[in-house]
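user: Please supply your own:

assistant:
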Amino acid sequence: MKRLKAFYVIAVGLIFQFAPLVARASSGEGLDVPEALNHKVPLEGLAGLSLLFSKLYNENLWLFAIVCTVLMAVVGMAIALVTDVILKAMGLETEKIEHRE
């Protein structure tokens, strides 16, 4: 029985060793190189914050990504604060839980 289990382990190991070779051999010539993503947001009819974020997206994607990340963190903290105030008004405790073993 031990030999049979050892045979199975070795057989599965060999199958996983040769599977990538078989997959690569049958993959064909591959895909073409993708084109650069040059998507621009049309600014016609936009005003206010929509125009600000659209211009930021069109001009500087890195700054747009940083602004969106910070904005999402601020919105998350604001939601947590409002939820905390509502729960305290209902009489529920919203303190950190202390874990003891």
